[in-house]
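--- STAGE predict ---
source: upstream dedup step, 1 unique chain passed
mode: sequence only
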Amino acid sequence: MLFVGVISGTSVDGLDVALLDDSRGLAVPAGAHQQIPEDLRKELIALATPGDNEVERLGRSNVYLGAWTGQCVLEFLDANGFSNSDVRAIGSHGQTIRHHPEPPHPFSLQIGDASVIAEITGIDVVSDPRSRDLAAGGQGAPLVPIYHLAQFLTDDTVRVVVNIGGIGNITVLDGVKRSVAAGFDTGPGNALLDAWTQHHLGRPFDDDGAWAKSGQPSSELLERLLADPYYSTAPPKSTGKEVFNLAYIQEALATCPAIEANDAQATFCELSARTIADAISRWGTGEADLEDVVVCGGGRHNLELMRRLSDRLSHVSVVPSEDIGVNGDFVEAAALAYLAKLFVEHRPGNCWEATGASGPRVLGCLYPGA
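--- STAGE serialize ---
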């Protein structure tokens, strides 16, 4: 069976679409990235922080994103020689607007109307994968460990899979027990880097990390950022861009001596690398022998970030997922397709040991196609 996964990540840079072929050992024969229409992108970014008339704006963006996503899926299938009848289900994540897993009323809100996607494509859509884990006492995140387990597990060794999107997260795979030993958000991945680049350079991201490479990290600013209690909080834990954003940067800079903009960018790059590496060392592997660290997501294209991460983990091999035959641009979209497959089979989709939920749960809600 074929499944399609679609996700607009925390970087809000576009929609990733992936095709998952269940008959070929979860092969991903096709993937695509579509730029979000600029008017929609600006509104999605604005909705991530409190503002005027939010309910109406959210409602309109919910339908707009759903309609555009549905059209993207049809174009993707046509470009790859498939029709809607070839696809069993679509796994749709949508765009995260808020993620607040803290009690007493934890919630995570994603938009991108699944009923509109189902109407346009005529394909069953499985959406809202986080809420059931939250209802069971979990963080609702990360979602990807169960797919990492199916795709990246190696026999008799420990492997860490790092996804660097707007937020960084890790999955620790125990090859002896054939299970997920840990999985959680480490803190900002690209979030601060992108926010500062957009603010100062007017570009969506720091291409290859060149701007960060041109600066020197500020020890004062880095110390201030590392004092955030999130890093010392034991997992399970998750976070989002409602915390790590431009306002967060400006608040931190206000308490430190003035520094050059490129030095601030170098500091944010060092922060992402150090917090990912520290999370792996502190909570990821314990006394186990770590075989390698596999990096996927957009952050692996940031050469300066990858260099700093490799320096911090110099005792192991740090490689992009392409080195083991997996396209790192479409891992999260493929994970959503895999979650749709699990839903159809009525199988749990959460790694509850990692999220902190009270047990395994089938994730998502079904919107039938035509």
